[in-house]
Amino acid sequence: MVIPTPEGGGAARTAPPWAELGAEAKRERLLGAAGEVFAREGIEAPMPAVAAAAGAGVGSVYRQFPSKEDLLAALVVRRLDTVAADIEAALAEKGGAWRALVGLMWRLADLQAADDVAAEAIATVSGHAEVATRAGLCERRLETLLDAARAEGRLRADASAADVRLVLAAVRATRRREPDGWRRMLELGLDGLAARTAS
To answer: What whole-number distance in Å separates Cα of residue 112 and Cα of residue 124?
Structure first.
């Protein structure tokens, strides 16, 4: 789960020494380092690896994030904030709700195609209070977009936010099995969500 830092990648190598950073800058560096470490080694990577990547001591990591779950949750919240912003942008589009939904799902699929770790992290910390709050917000706003697409007659009547998640999960699974096939899977999923017109 690669989370860019204000300094860009490799913050610990190019930014000021840890001791010179303020609390917020330390948090940002740790999040950036954690994103890089987990993307490279998986979310099982230990906290000392995150500390080393940030140029900090292990105790400094735990002062910012009392547990590994809290660190993962902070990364997931950032990802969900990005998703929420994408949904809001889709809701604001003028070309129709179905078109906006299709564009949103392509953006989300592109995002997950570039980051295999995020879904695993989200599943791991789904019960974390802040993650659950953000996920609930995303779901409610997505349902608003689905309602609008349904009102246009373009979305099947029984489609839900859970169905969107299932399609994206299928896209992710396809990419793991056949890396070049995920786009086809998304096309099939979108076709399954579309309303059927009488012939």
So the answer is: 16
Q: Are 73 and 125 in contact (CB under 8 A)?
A: yes
Which one-letter amino acid corresponds to residue 38?
F
Pick from 176, 73, 48: nearest CA to 124: 73
Asked if 107 and 169 sit in the same domain, the reply is yes
Count structural domains, the chain: 2
Give pLDDT tens digits along the chain (199 positions): 544 333 444 444 566 899 898 999 999 999 999 999 998 999 999 999 999 999 999 999 999 999 999 999 999 999 999 999 999 999 999 999 999 999 999 999 988 876 767 888 888 999 999 999 999 999 999 999 999 999 999 999 999 999 999 999 999 999 888 988 999 999 999 999 999 875 4
Q: Does residue 118 share a domain with residue 174? A: yes
Residues 164 and 101 in one domain: yes
Whether 126 and 97 share a structural domain: yes
Whole-prediction pTM value? 0.83
Answer yes or no: do 150 and 83 share one domain: yes
